[in-house]
Amino acid sequence: MKITAISNLGLCGSKEALKEKISRLCEVGISEIILREKNLSVSEYCALFCEVLQICNHFGVRLFLHNFLDLAFDLEHKFIWLPLGVLQNFRQNSTRNLSEFEKIVISAHSTDEAGLALNLGANALCLSHIFPTDCKANLEPKGLDLIRNVREFWDGEIYALGGINSSNFHFAIESGADNIAIMSSAMTCENEKEFLENFL
To answer: Rounded to the nearest 10 degrees, what angle do helices 84-93 and 111-120 cross at?
Structure first.
């Protein structure tokens, strides 16, 4: 099982604090990092991504470029994590080839979205949100059935996201997820080593 941490600049307060947080997570053995800062401009994101990539490479941790697909092509970065809409727009408007990427994780919130993502070229899925979460307080969680239902037609890699903690993550794995992705608690934990050990 991979434990993937999703960045949140707002929760960290500054770019320097975010880089320090990512460095500490990498140091204690986080599996992967997603730099999910889609509120930045492309140029701002690129500058931050290149700095974070240095950190991740130092520790041998995989970094996903999020949202900015053209930038991923330009940087020749092989690992991307995209909203479904970005992939749909790309397929409608671009002649570039997704085969340049090694891993294409697409976020999906229903079985229909999951099927569409796979048809458009995803080779891994992020299903959310599984449990109640403050990030989506007004939205009903999709629940474990989303994982189970997608697993009926997809035997590839599934990440579970949304409200996942050390008490409930095993339910997501038992329902068919391969990995878990976590944002808020990863960004706000005071002790990164303890945070990670709670999932081992």
So the answer is: 40
